[in-house]
Amino acid sequence: MKDKPLFVTGIGTDVGKTICSAVLCEQLKADYWKPVQAGDLGFTDSDRVRKMVRNPLTKIHPEAFRLKLAASPHHSALVEGIEICRESFKLPETDRLLLIEGAGGLFVPLSSSFFMIDLIIQFEAEAVLVVRNYLGCINHTLLSIEALKQKNIVLKYIVLNGNFPEATKAIILEQFPEETTLIEIPEF
């Protein structure tokens, strides 16, 4: 793997991480991996990306955990009697850029002391933060940016998913890290 992996996270659940992941896989010619799938095992996020990406070279790597209950991964694992720990995760081997999609936001727990943000650090990945406009999105975005800064994680891209009022967009852009690239995509 030449480049650092990209870890797609969001300011919360249902902000469009999977669609953004598919767009980025297509545009960056990257492979895709969702380490933890909680719920929707009949049509997973990996299945969704596979269906959306047209590049035949894009490899969709299998999840490390496929949990039945659509809930926080730590809770789903507890219900199934599974322990999720740091040692459970190994990056898939690839010669291409690897795009990793997290579950929910940065502080979604995988266990009582292991969170999504810890996976980003463990994988030495750069972050992609997906933002959707809703009441509270400014607060959630700025908190996410601050958390990434505090952990010294490079925020490579911020993806504004859908339409944003100019006043909302302006506040987010004022707090934008210098090294970060803005990507705007229409709501799909």
From TrEMBL:
Pathway: Cofactor biosynthesis; biotin biosynthesis; biotin from 7,8-diaminononanoate: step 1/2. Pfam families: AAA_26. It catalyses: (7R,8S)-7,8-diammoniononanoate + CO2 + ATP = (4R,5S)-dethiobiotin + ADP + phosphate + 3 H(+); (7R,8S)-8-amino-7-(carboxyamino)nonanoate + ATP = (4R,5S)-dethiobiotin + ADP + phosphate + H(+). It comes from the Bacteria. Transmembrane segments: none annotated. The keyword Metal-binding applies. The active site is at residue 34. Keywords: ATP-binding, Biotin biosynthesis, Cytoplasm, Ligase, Magnesium, Metal-binding, Nucleotide-binding. InterPro entries: DTB_synth_BioD, P-loop_NTPase. It is found in: Cytoplasm. Its EC number is 6.3.3.3. Its main location: cytoplasm. Its cofactor is Mg(2+). Gene3D superfamilies: P-loop containing nucleotide triphosphate hydrolases (3.40.50.300). ATP binds at residues 14-19, 47, 101-104, 187. One of its GO terms (molecular function) is dethiobiotin synthase activity. One of its GO terms (cellular component) is cytosol. The keyword Nucleotide-binding applies. GO terms for biological process: biotin biosynthetic process. Mg(2+) binds at residues 18, 47, 101. Catalyzes a mechanistically unusual reaction, the ATP-dependent insertion of CO2 between the N7 and N8 nitrogen atoms of 7,8-diaminopelargonic acid (DAPA, also called 7,8-diammoniononanoate) to form a ureido ring. Homodimer. HAMAP family: BioD. Belongs to the dethiobiotin synthetase family. This is ATP-dependent dethiobiotin synthetase BioD. The lineage of its organism: Bacteria, Pseudomonadati, Bacteroidota, Sphingobacteriia, Sphingobacteriales.
